[in-house]
Amino acid sequence: MQAGFARSLSVPAMALLTLLILTGGAGMPAAAQGGGITVINVPPQFSGFSIRTQDGLNYIDVVVSDYNAWSDIFRVSVDVLDDLRAPVAEVAFQQYPDNVTLTRQPQFTEPLGSYLVRTLSSATVDVRPVTVEQRTQMLVTFVLSPVRGTWVSVTATDLGGLEAFAEVEYAANFFGGLPWVPAIFVAAFASVVAVIVVGRRIRRDLHGE
What is the pTM of this model? Predict the structure, then answer.
């Protein structure tokens, strides 16, 4: 009976059956906390990015989307570089202690420099998601004290090691000053939509008006 059943399957059907057996469960998101969407692992991407100055501090708002769910986002990091691309500051938000331990232990770290204002920095997710955006997006706000630098790069990494990368060049040699953004450079793993928000408030802060 089994042999007859195998012979009755067409070649495409047999190929599909074999593929499903070989890939069943592979590439699916880890069972981390948070509402998930069941898709094959895809890289994260930036759906929002803004830099603003308030009360003399620099607020970097990064919205990261991951269609495996926000719980699949492992780490979001921001580097401030000088004009020679040497790092002068690095701050990061990490959801888990590593990509194996799937119990959320969110924390902010500062591998380089002493600019991070931890009490104001935050990571926001919707723990009771309803829409796709609520299930997939995380807003991370890094708050930094004044730091000199001409480049700002942002990297998001998921639990599977896939990355999204974006980099912005500043004409001013003071991070938090009025920026000139000639281009957004996107890594091959993700597309980036970057919005630089500069209001009159920044101009008043810089010039004391």
Answer: 0.66
Q: How is residue 169 written in tokens?
A: 């060049």
Angstrom distance (rounded) from CA 39 to CA 72: 12
Distance of alpha carbon 150 from alpha carbon 180, whole angstroms: 10
CB within 8 Å of 112: residues ≥ 6 apart = 87, 88, 89, 90
Question: Which runs of E-coded beta strand occur in the chain?
Answer: 45-54, 57-65, 73-81, 87-94, 107-112, 122-124, 137-144, 151-158, 163-169, 185-186
Contacts of residue 75, defined as CB under 8 A and 6 or more positions apart, other chains included, come to 92, 93, 94, 95, 155, 156, 157
- Taking residues 191-196, report their average pLDDT: 30
Q: Both tokens of residue 166?
A: 């974006």
Two structure tokens written together for 68: 């495996």
pLDDT band at 187 (very low <50, low <70, confident <90, very high): very low
H or E element, residue 5: helix 2-8
- CA within 13 Å, CB half, 46: 29
Longest alpha-carbon distance in the chain? 87
Other CB atoms within 10 Å distance of the CB of residue 192: 20
Q: For 35-91, what is each residue's pLDDT tens digit?
A: 444 457 899 999 888 888 889 899 999 999 999 999 999 999 999 999 899 999 999
